[in-house]
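so im writing up the methods section and need the Prepilin-type N-terminal cleavage/methylation domain-containing protein record in one place, dumping it here so i stop losing it
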Amino acid sequence: MSLKIITLLKNKRKGFTLLESLVVISITSLILLTLLWGTRVFNRQINSEPRFWQSFAVAWNQTLVTAKIQQTPAWVTLAPHQAVCFETYLHQRLIKHEVRVPTGLSVTSWHEIKISKNGTVSPQTITWRSEASRRWILQKIQLGWGCYHNEIKSF
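--- predicted struct ---
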């Protein structure tokens, strides 16, 4: 009896059955889609950092100029895993502008930067951690001028 079952189960043709082919195609396409999706997410994180730094620079310069022109102080607040908040007064109204920090980039500790009414800023260094590019970014704010530069270091 068992010999008859074995001979019935044996396929005399060479190659895959339809079911086996569908399983292999399904598994292969699932793996390829997962890899494709993962690289797109990773590339999006890598590309979002330069856009963040451009937006940060625009908001920073706008806040500096507004503080100088309006002769009012301004503040920049940085907190881990939160948007960067720029606060300034325009015609005696508080104006808040936020720059969203991309996923994978975060400031390591809380900072509040005061921009004086004549646009000067005290010197300080702010440390950012980038998970996407695996590096530290040291944002060094220079004395008096209100400008900064970013120094990049590997983990």
